[in-house]
Write a structure and sequence with these properties.
Helix content: 55-70%
Bound molecules: adenosine-5'-triphosphate, magnesium ion
Structural class: alpha/beta
Order of helices and strands: HEHEHEEHHHEHHEHEHEH
Number of strands: 8
CATH superfamily of the largest domain: P-loop containing nucleotide triphosphate hydrolases
CATH topology of the largest domain: Rossmann fold
Strand order of the largest sheet: 3-4-2-5-1-6-7-8
Distance between the termini: 17 Å
CATH class of the largest domain: Alpha Beta
Strand content: 5-15%
Number of helices: 11
Oligomer: single chain
């Protein structure tokens, strides 16, 4: 079945993701798909969780940290500025400390601790995560196209969700045990209990947000996750492994899209041995791919004459990917 037909067949899908190894064409396909959907009348937001401003490059428009930016009618692109969000967190933490201890200035040791915490990679990831949840919770678009980092943050979120689940269960149990003690010493424990409930509430809030995003990932009706692959041995192997992992986490895989297929019309021309060899190699791996993935291959996108940047090239590639529209 063609990719365009797939989109027609599943009109309830809202979240579109392209996964795969680095450099195979995830950003290119995210942009082309968003472009196609916008051109066919859907309101689309394509957003990047990649700190390497990738959409800025492909759309040739500086959108980093600027919120949803209109590219063409119906097509909006957004690049998340994680630093900005981390700064916001820092501000909130400072304010909390000031309020809690009635101080008017953050002591130097605490300030350096806040600075060090902000440099943790986990901080950036949680900032990106928060932005993504905000984007999807806010709504307003027919489609959300995720421009993912290699292998997909998807799995990271999912594994994080199960870690949080276990953790919160443990805390909730402890909390219940505490409650029994509390009844014995109600008065003394009063204030402490309030603090712990605040922490528990915060954890439950985080859990709810994580569940929201992991439920999107495993939602077979609303989410489509496509894998990008090329006709190369390592790519095929890695794709098989990734597909197994996805199955383990119950993330529905909606199909595979081949990229950088050498156009077959070249083959019949008088081409040098070098290219002939490339064709033979490609045929060999295409056969393996056809055997392995069969009708799950939804499109074969050719190797273009140049890199895909700017709307004219995106348009050209989108027509190869979806057919004429
Ligand atoms: N079919 C194609 N023909 C020609 N160039 C292509 C094609 N597909 C992708 N490219 C080029 O290959 C490069 C990598 O593509 P892209 O950035 O989409 O990969 P990616 O999977 O998003 O990479 P990363 O994992 O780094 O995010 C880009 O320069 C892009 O223009
Ligand atoms: Mg990319």
């Amino acid at each position: 079945m063609s990719l365009a037909k797939i989109f027609e067949k599943y009109p309830n899908r809202r979240y579109i993701m392209f996964g795969g190894k680095g450099g195979l064409g995830k950003t290119t396909f995210s942009a082309a798909t968003s472009y196609y959907l916008a051109k066919t009348g859907k309101k689309v937001l394509v957003f990047s969780v990649d700190p390497q401003a990738s959409l800025t490059d492909i759309f040739q428009k500086d959108i980093f940290g600027k919120g949803p930016t209109e590219i063409i009618p119906n097509l909006y692109a957004q690049e998340i500025d994680a630093d900005q969000r981390v700064k916001k967190y820092q501000g909130e933490i400072r304010q909390k400390i000031l309020d809690m201890y009635g101080m008017d200035k953050i002591p130097e040791e605490i300030e350096s601790y806040i600075q060090a915490a902000a440099a943790e990679p986990a901080m950036e990831e949680s900032a990106i995560f928060d932005e993504v949840v905000d984007i999807v919770v806010k709504g307003g678009y027919d489609y959300y196209v995720y421009d993912l980092v290699p292998l997909g943050h998807a799995l990271y979120y999912l594994s994080m969700a199960s870690v949080y689940d276990a953790w919160i269960d443990k805390i909730t149990n402890l909390r219940e045990q505490m409650r029994e003690f509390d009844q014995a010493a109600a008065v003394i424990r009063r204030e402490k209990e309030l603090d712990e409930d605040a922490i528990l509430n915060e954890l439950l809030f985080i859990k709810e947000r994580i569940n929201k995003s992991s439920s999107i990932l495993t939602d077979k009706e609303k989410t489509a996750f496509f894998f990008v692959l090329t006709a190369e041995e390592m790519v095929i192997k890695d794709t098989q492994k990734a597909a197994e992992l996805f199955a383990k986490f119950d993330v529905p895989l909606s199909g595979y899209i081949m990229n950088r297929v050498l156009p077959s019309e070249l083959k019949d021309q008088n081409i040098p041995d070098y290219l002939k060899n490339r064709f033979e190699m490609q045929e060999h791996y295409l056969k393996i791919i056809d055997d392995e993935f069969k009708e799950q291959i939804l499109a074969r996108v050719p190797e273009m004459e140049r890199d895909v940047t700017g709307l004219a090239m995106i348009d050209k590639l989108a027509r190869k990917m979806f057919g004429e529209f």
